[in-house]
């Protein structure tokens, strides 16, 4: 690594150092750097525990446990100046230990981390935010053999790199990162470089692994959940037909956990959400224009008291400032995967969606007329062209 000296138009080599010579320690320094800057490893990671020792019949501790954007567990092992001989065996043991963790256990582990190190917070909500989903229910965490390993050290021994390459050839997702400190006057610079597999090969290998995990999931847990959802929506639509709820008369069943029906204003569907622990009825604002969605939500929010008085119930108002969409919803706790509860869920959804529509529709018509005169810089939609495209909204996530 070199420093550019502008006044002489030369480059000056930086002095390569050892962490031990600089007084840095594995746990106090390298580990903490990665806790607060996990994307230094080349991707977005959510650290869910450090010094994790939740293993039966052993006092061993893994350095860092994380989730990646696909919900896979990532075991991160840090070494100082030398990888040592046993780092691969050590990381494989830890990965085997965490491979059996269930979603509820992962959430509990992360909640403990938040309480101990981050001053609190709701683990399930933070996981949803990280995975960019609305509900923890359909999320698949730690699926099958999807666990990953990251090894960090300033120097890797040949027996370590040879073993890592062999494991990669057998389908184990494992990466080696070389971390090198340099001194520059009074400053210390850190270079973190993925050396195994090379980044250009890594994308291909991770892609193959993700494809295998996706197929395994779809054939297992997801396949079962998809069938439950299809069966529930079929049951619900029959109940709606019997009760004369016409809003969803032209909507088909789906394997998704949500079902949309047009409101008459493009981009604002009435949405039903069916989950394992919760069901919801929502009015969504889903235009491609963030400004359009927020304007519409804000107009509804100004009438919050009037709307809730007419409904006779409180609603959840979610502007979602960090997202493009916004929503107004009401939820109820049900064990949705127990078919004995389906009559109660269907009764509740039928009652609520009719009330929501009756109260919200005049406001939609009013604000829909008002917004035509408002110009938004990020508007892509053309209201006239999209007026008859309500069915396309059923393909958008909620």
Automatic annotation (TrEMBL):
Domain named DUF4268 is located at 228-362
Q: Which GO terms describe its molecular function?
A: nucleic acid binding
Pfam families attached to this UniProt entry? DUF4268
TM annotation in the entry:
none
Highest taxon of the source?
Bacteria
Q: Which InterPro entries match?
A: DUF4268, tRNA_endonuc-like_dom_sf
The protein's name in its UniProt record: DUF4268 domain-containing protein
Species of the source: Brytella acorum
The top of its lineage is: Bacteria, Pseudomonadati, Pseudomonadota, Alphaproteobacteria, Acetobacterales
């Amino acid at each position: 690594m070199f420093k550019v000296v502008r006044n002489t138009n030369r480059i000056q080599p930086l002095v390569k150092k050892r962490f031990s010579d600089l007084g840095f320690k594995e746990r106090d320094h390298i580990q903490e750097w990665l806790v607060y800057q996990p994307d230094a490893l080349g991707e977005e990671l959510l650290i869910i525990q450090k010094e994790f020792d939740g293993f039966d019949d052993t006092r061993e501790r893994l350095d860092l446990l994380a989730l990646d954007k696909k919900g896979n567990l990532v075991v991160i092992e840090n070494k100082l100046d030398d990888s040592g001989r046993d780092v691969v065996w050590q990381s494989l043991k830890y990965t085997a230990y965490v491979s059996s963790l269930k979603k509820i256990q992962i959430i509990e582990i992360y909640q403990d981390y938040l309480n101990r190190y981050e001053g609190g917070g709701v683990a399930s909500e933070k996981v949803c935010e990280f995975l960019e989903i609305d509900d923890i229910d359909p999320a698949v965490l730690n699926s099958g053999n999807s666990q990953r390993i990251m090894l960090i050290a300033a120097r890797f021994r040949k027996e370590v790199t040879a073993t890592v390459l062999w494991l990669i050839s057998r389908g184990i997702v494992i990466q080696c990162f070389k971390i090198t400190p340099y001194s520059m006057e009074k400053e210390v610079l850190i270079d973190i470089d993925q050396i195994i597999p090379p980044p250009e090969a890594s994308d291909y290998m991770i892609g193959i692994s993700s494809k295998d995990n996706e197929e395994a999931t779809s054939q297992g847990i997801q396949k079962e959940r998809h069938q439950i959802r299809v069966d529930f929506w079929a049951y619900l639509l029959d109940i709606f037909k019997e009760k004369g709820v016409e809003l969803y008369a032209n909507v088909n069943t789906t394997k998704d956990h949500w079902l949309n029906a047009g409101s008459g204003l493009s981009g604002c569907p009435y949405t039903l959400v069916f989950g394992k622990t919760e069901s919801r009825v929502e009015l969504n604002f889903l235009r491609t224009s963030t400004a359009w969605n927020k304007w519409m939500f804000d107009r509804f929010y100004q009438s919050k008291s009037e709307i809730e008085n007419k409904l006779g119930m409180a609603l959840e108002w979610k502007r979602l400032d960090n997202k493009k969409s916004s929503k107004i919803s009401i939820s109820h706790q049900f064990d949705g995967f127990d078919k004995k509860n389906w009559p109660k869920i269907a009764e509740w959804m039928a009652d609520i969606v009719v009330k929501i529509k009756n109260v919200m529709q005049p406001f939609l018509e009013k604000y829909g007329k008002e917004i035509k005169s408002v110009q938004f810089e990020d508007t892509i939609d053309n209201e006239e062209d999209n007026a008859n495209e309500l069915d396309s909204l059923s393909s958008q996530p909620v």
